[in-house]
Design a protein that fits this description.
Blueprint lengths: L16 H14 L3 H15 L5 E5 L5 H9 L4 E6 L2 H14 L3 E5 L10 E7 L7 H14 E14 L3 H17 L4 H11 L6 E2 H11 L3 E8 L2 E7 L2
Parallel strand pairs: 1-2, 1-4, 2-3, 4-5, 5-6
Antiparallel strand pairs: 5-8, 7-8
Family: Belongs to the class I-like SAM-binding methyltransferase superfamily. Cx-SAM synthase family.
GO molecular function: carboxyl- or carbamoyltransferase activity; methyltransferase activity; S-adenosyl-L-methionine binding
Pfam families: Methyltransf_25
């Protein structure tokens, strides 16, 4: 169970061994409708791409999305990329336990070379890329997709209206309390993520997608300050 922030923090947030061990629990208790969004992501992929499609999950962590996708369509060629060795070690154990065929690669997702992909997934990952690099990174994703390829990603978002933004944050913290997190843990994680997780507004995310060439751009799920986007390469 996630107890990472029950003690005073000594560093900024990072996906290290302590986080990797409890990461699945952290996701389900920290992200509203996490399982539903994961299922929606996989179902949208199955609806839009052909048998034998090449799918890559950037920042795959412990491979939850790829495992769910494998269960829905075993013909897909699945690749998970992450720079956290501890995450990939747990992912490999889970893949082996399920008898799935999923390739894993330890690499910096901003530096890895991608091409001829039918789907690229990036759930709760872009927000950790510095804003000065984010647009160029999304352009690399666009270039790596085949025609009609999909880019699906989920993000924490902010609102332009400061009062509404504060209300959404308060509602999110109330959600975390219902998941068993204390006010101390919530404050500790907020401090650890300061200047590490930098979210955009929903409109800024869509403008970034449009600027690199994506044609179809839709928000397919939204709860408070979390959103899932689908972008299609024309």
């Amino acid at each position: 169970m996630d107890k990472v922030f029950t003690k005073p923090i000594t560093k900024q947030f990072e996906f290290d061994e302590d986080v990797a061990i409890v990461f699945d629990d952290m996701l389900e208790r920290s992200i509203p409708f996490y399982k539903e969004v994961l299922e929606l992501t996989c179902k949208m992929i199955c609806l839009h791409v052909k048998e034998g499609a090449h799918v890559v999950d950037l920042g795959c962590s412990t491979a939850n999305t790829l495992l769910a996708l494998h269960k829905m369509n075993k013909s897909y060629h699945l690749l998970g990329i992450d720079n956290a060795e501890a995450m990939l070690r747990i992912a490999a154990q889970k893949i082996h336990a399920y008898g799935a065929t999923i390739a894993l690669q330890e690499a910096d997702i901003t530096q890895v070379h991608l091409q001829n992909k039918d789907v690229i997934i990036a759930n709760y990952m872009l927000q950790f890329i510095r804003p000065l690099q984010r647009g160029d990174f999304v352009r690399k994703i666009y270039d790596a997709l085949n025609p009609d390829g999909l880019f699906i990603f989920s993000e924490k978002i902010v609102f332009d209206d400061k009062v509404l933004n504060k209300e959404m944050i308060d509602l999110y913290y109330a959600f975390k309390r219902t998941q068993g997190y204390s006010d101390f843990e919530i404050a500790q994680k907020r401090e650890a993520l300061e200047n590490v997780l930098i979210p955009y507004t929903e409109e800024e995310n869509k403008a970034m997608l449009k600027s690199v060439g994506f044609t179809t751009i839709e928000t397919i799920f939204k709860w408070g300050n979390f959103a899932t986007f689908l972008a299609k390469k024309g």
